[in-house]
Amino acid sequence: MATAAPKKKATSTQYEAVIGLETHCQLNTETKIFSPVSTAFGTPPNTNISAICLGYPGVLPVLNEKVLEYAVKAGLALNCKIAPYSKFDRKQYFYPDLPKNYQISQYDLPIAEHGWLEIEVVEKPGDEPMRKKIGITRLHMEEDAGKLVHAGSDRLAGSTHSLVDFNRAGVPLLEIVSEPDIRTGAEAAEYGQELRRIMRYLGISDGNMQEGSLRCDVNISVRPVGQEEFGTKVEIKNMNSFSAIQKAIDYEIERQIKCLETGEKIAQETRLWEEGSQKTISMRSKEGSSDYRYFPEPDLPPIEVSVEQMNQWKGELPELPAQKRHRYEEELELSAYDARVLTDDREIAEYFESAIAQNANPKQVANWLMGDIAAYLNSEKLTIGEIALKPPILAELVNLIDQGTISGKIAKEILPELLTTAIDSLQKFVESKGMIQISDTGELEKIIDKILSENADKVEQFRNGKTKLQGFFVGQIMKETSGRADPKLTNQLLGKKLKG
Amino acid sequence: MLDREQVHKVAHLARLDLTPEEETAFTQQLSSILDYFEQLEELDTENVHPTTRAIEISNVTRPDTLRTMEDREKMLQEAPEQEGDFFRVPQILSTED
């Protein structure tokens, strides 16, 4: 080649991160996993305790049937294989928040394995989403530990003694472990959000990260692109929002790349995300990894989920967020963005579906929901079920605009009242308020004639070439009709009359 | 055969403080127990699935309904130390799990 095309400068090594998430999700059952005491959050210390969750001698833990049902449903929703034979094991370690000195968990025969979920990552608003399947290694049931309050200091270091609250000990958890399929902080945050969406759709967990009902730990290593083996794995904990997960991972990727480039050794360790400094800090070295000496829990018989039972639970699964997104795009021809926003919350999605079931235009219903209605819910801190405007009335609103019965402008004006006042029929409501759009040619012509005769001088000016006065006449007509004149028809008739 | 190192490790995991004499004694005793169990290796277990239960029973569950439980005060009082609504524990020295 005579003239070399400008070549991209040979850059230094490209790196990629290999990320897996371990998520603990509290189930919203009434009672604990192995004992019939309350799981309520925020009650005074040690009020929801029993001899079973405190590990007193001679007690017998019995599995809560809802926990099994929820675990199987979550497994099915995550496209997992449900184990035909599953069991509990004792994971042994000493820590004051663990009263029995072992946690009842599942080790080699978890209730569900080999699943996946689909995430959608959007780089910039308006971009087509990148879809990716993230593998689920396993899902198992276990009990939560208690909570420690460190006296004399808000941190462990420096405290003189600690106080233990066992209200949380024995609250049911699902631990969900992903395959190391995640590559960026954004993908990890989206994975966490999709997982939470699925749990909320199933109605099995509130997914509240602040209260700790959803907790994500991240395993992350970095390697040069093309390298087969993984780099040294670091665990990050202590993120209590999805944006913190994203930021912690982005920070950690940079830190590990820097280590690789300067030849510094990456320690296999656990690091904590510090929200204040926006950094990860070393917590403890993981070398000589723990020996939990798992063995089968002798007090709990194994679980054999029958095919009939599994099929019944399968039949009870709702349509899941990813299925809804695909359907909204394919059948309702909504954009990927609209589909994502509408399906984020199951209640909103069901409201939307109930409105379009009344033959209202899906895109218009979506616009109202995502625009004025969402803004109202946000500012008033309400959920969609708490407003007076019910799906049939929203459907009627969209249909009355479509049919030309009311103008879009009037619709926007009456919305605040509709949001707070329940009505039976929007048609009757707008009629009684005299808000029906004037679309009758004869009636409009009469009004136009009146305006033109009152402004004879301006008509003269218009005819002499000052054509932008058309806007002035439209304004006068709207004023005269309190905005009820059909804008399209008005412009049409006005144009004809002005030409004379 | 169990060596001293293994006994030491098991003792550490169980948070047991053994004297050198005890370590020697337990190494011998535990080894002889394990040797005794090793007789089982004579059996052909090729087609036997690992056992996770002693009795043929599975799927024991209870309904998710609240029950009034034992006296809370009594449970708190059973602990070595109590402080208000809490169980009190000595200073935690290590975060190792």
TrEMBL record, chain A:
- What SMART domains does this protein map onto? GatB_Yqey
Residues in Asn/Gln amidotransferase domain copies: 350-498
Q: Where are the transmembrane segments?
A: none
Task: Show the PROSITE patterns listed in the entry.
Answer: GATB
Record-linked Pfam families: GatB_N, GatB_Yqey
Catalysis: reaction(s): L-aspartyl-tRNA(Asn) + L-glutamine + ATP + H2O = L-asparaginyl-tRNA(Asn) + L-glutamate + ADP + phosphate + 2 H(+); L-glutamyl-tRNA(Gln) + L-glutamine + ATP + H2O = L-glutaminyl-tRNA(Gln) + L-glutamate + ADP + phosphate + H(+)
Provide this UniProt record's keywords sorted from A to Z. ATP-binding, Ligase, Nucleotide-binding, Protein biosynthesis
EC number of this enzyme? 6.3.5.-
Name the InterPro entries for this protein: Asn/Gln-tRNA_amidoTrfase_suB/E, Asn/Gln-tRNA_Trfase_suB/E_cat, Asn/Gln_amidotransferase, Asn/Gln_tRNA_amidoTrase-B-like, GatB, GatB_C_1, GatB_Yqey_C_2, Gln-tRNA_amidoTrfase_suB_CS
- SUPFAM superfamilies in the record: GatB/YqeY motif (SSF89095), Glutamine synthetase/guanido kinase (SSF55931)
Tell me the function of this protein.
Allows the formation of correctly charged Asn-tRNA(Asn) or Gln-tRNA(Gln) through the transamidation of misacylated Asp-tRNA(Asn) or Glu-tRNA(Gln) in organisms which lack either or both of asparaginyl-tRNA or glutaminyl-tRNA synthetases. The reaction takes place in the presence of glutamine and ATP through an activated phospho-Asp-tRNA(Asn) or phospho-Glu-tRNA(Gln).
* Description of how the protein assembles with itself and partners: Heterotrimer of A, B and C subunits.
Check the record and name the HAMAP family matching this protein: GatB
The text of the family note is: Belongs to the GatB/GatE family. GatB subfamily.
Q: What is this protein called?
A: Aspartyl/glutamyl-tRNA(Asn/Gln) amidotransferase subunit B
Annotated gene: gatB
UniProtKB/TrEMBL annotation, chain B:
Task: For the region Disordered, give the residue spans.
Answer: 78-97
Q: Which domain of life is it from?
A: Bacteria
In the UniProt record, does the keyword Transport occur?
no
Gene3D superfamilies, A to Z: Glu-tRNAGln amidotransferase C subunit, N-terminal domain (1.10.20.60)
Per the UniProt entry, the Enzyme Commission number(s) are 6.3.5.-
Q: Which UniProt keywords apply?
A: ATP-binding, Ligase, Nucleotide-binding, Protein biosynthesis
Residue stretches in coiled coil: none
A Pfam match is GatC
- Reaction catalysed by this chain? L-glutamyl-tRNA(Gln) + L-glutamine + ATP + H2O = L-glutaminyl-tRNA(Gln) + L-glutamate + ADP + phosphate + H(+); L-aspartyl-tRNA(Asn) + L-glutamine + ATP + H2O = L-asparaginyl-tRNA(Asn) + L-glutamate + ADP + phosphate + 2 H(+)
Enzyme category, top tier: ligase
Checking NCBIfam families in the record gives: gatC
The UniProt subunit note reads as follows: Heterotrimer of A, B and C subunits.
Can you say what this protein is called?
Aspartyl/glutamyl-tRNA(Asn/Gln) amidotransferase subunit C
The gene it comes from is: gatC
